[in-house]
Specification:
Blueprint: E1 16-18, H1 24-34, H2 41-50, E2 53-59, E3 62-71, E4 75-83, H3 92-107, E5 115-118, H4 125-129
Helix pairs in contact: 1-2
Length: about 150
């Protein structure tokens, strides 16, 4: 029986996953749609070019989702998993994360000592736990400096 507190999964338009970074315009459009902070375009472009791995989801010729892996091999960060609001709950986010997790496994296989990290909204903890992510132990804290 479906949970009553979640909207039903929509039947989605076909999409394809393409291993490439989103353009700066695509990236900013996705972040804007998600209500995220909009970065400086020059800095965003440089960051997108430095990712270890990037992937986009395209539907009807438009980028509707993206995800990136950044890091140095010892620490890998799953970053910017974004799906356009009109395309959510269609399996796109799952496909993006699954592909990224396959890539992290090839970069840093089990017993490599690598730490794969992500920052997520509390309501997405259950989603990410499906891929093996766990809340950080209580002896670790998450800290940041946001330069907006």
């Amino acid at each position: 029986m479906p949970r009553k507190d979640k909207p039903p999964i929509r039947v989605s338009k076909p999409y394809e996953l393409v291993e490439r970074a989103p353009s700066v315009a695509e990236f900013i459009a996705l972040r804007s749609d998600a209500g995220w902070h909009l970065p400086n375009q020059k800095i965003a472009g440089a960051a997108l070019n430095k990712a270890l791995y990037s992937i986009v989801a395209i539907s009807e010729g438009t980028v509707v989702g993206c995800a990136r892996i950044v890091g140095d091999g010892l620490y890998l960060y799953l970053q910017d998993v974004i799906v356009k609001s009109a395309s959510r709950r269609c399996g796109i986010g799952t496909a993006l994360v699954r592909r990224c997790m396959d890539v992290t496994a090839s970069i840093a296989p089990p017993n490599s000592g690598c730490l794969v990290v992500l920052m997520a909204a509390p309501e997405l903890q259950r989603f990410y736990s499906r891929f093996g992510f766990k809340l950080a132990p209580e002896n670790l804290s998450f800290m940041l400096i946001q330069r907006t």
